[in-house]
Amino acid sequence: MVFCLLGGALSIAIIKMYSPLCNEPLHHLSHYIKAEKTLQIGIVIFLSILISFTSGSLIHYFIRFLFSFEYKSKLPCIGVI
Which of 21, 32, 51, 67 could bridge to 13 as Cys pair (CB 3.0-4.6 Å)? Predict the structure, then answer.
């Protein structure tokens, strides 16, 4: 969703820059879009995805390891979890 909004803002900024009324060069694109904040948002999104997949896989591994050997004897004690 964030990247869709970024793409829309980028395309509108380029259209506005190349309009006949405002003939600005392309390197003035930073006046329309804050690249630092956009990069920060993108990094945070990818970092949160990485953390969630890593923690989920670790939890999944330990639960599978806990129940993989002699699960019938451990099920009454640990099965409540």
Answer: 32
User: What pTM was estimated for this model as a whole?
Assistant: 0.58
Between CA 57 and CA 51 the distance in angstroms is 10
Q: Which long-range contacts (CB under 8 A, 24 or more apart) does 75-81 make?
A: none
For residue range 3-34, list pLDDT tens digits in order. 888 888 888 888 888 877 777 777 777 777 88
Would residue 70 be called left, alpha or beta, if left means φ above 0 and alpha means ψ between -120 and 50 degrees? Answer: left
Sequence letter at residue 9? A
Tokens, residue 53? 């997949």
